[in-house]
Amino acid sequence: MRTCLALAAAGLLIAGAATAQDAARSRVFTVRGEVSSMTPLIGGYTVELAAAGGMRETAQIASDGRFEVRSSREGPQELRIVGPGGAVVHQETVMVNGAHPYLAIHLPDQGSASRAAGSPGTVSIQ
Questions:
Q1: Structurally, how many domains does the chain consist of?
Q2: Strands 56-60 and 88-96
Q3: pTM of the predicted model, to two decimals?
Q4: Which residues pair with 123 in a beta bridge?
Q5: Is 103 exposed, middle or buried (CB count within 10 Å of its CB: 0-12, 13-18, 19+)?
Q6: pLDDT reported for residue 92
Q7: Domain assignment present for 20
Q8: Burial tier of 4 (Cβ tally within 10 Å: 0-12, 13-18, 19+)
Q9: Rounded distance, CA 123 to CA 105, Å?
């Protein structure tokens, strides 16, 4: 009888640990950030964040460049800046971790030669 109780207790501890690990992996965060650019981002620019195989979360970029994505998961995310016509103007992979992630995105000057498709900008997480 004691052996059965001990095995049941051990099973519950293992199941609880596995559930806690799954909960930690699926934590949802509000990601805040700011986009800076030499040219103003006026007229319907958005930020999109998506985990591999996950739902894409979208937020409007305010006139001061700030944004807030309310339902982002922890881990690597694909970040895209989308212009008013639907064209992707910037794309990066970022790592979302911690309880209060903040993304600072610096876009290169649109008139420069480095603005070619696929040219990376700078993304930092504080």
A1: 1
A2: unpaired
A3: 0.65
A4: 105
A5: buried
A6: 93
A7: no
A8: exposed
A9: 5
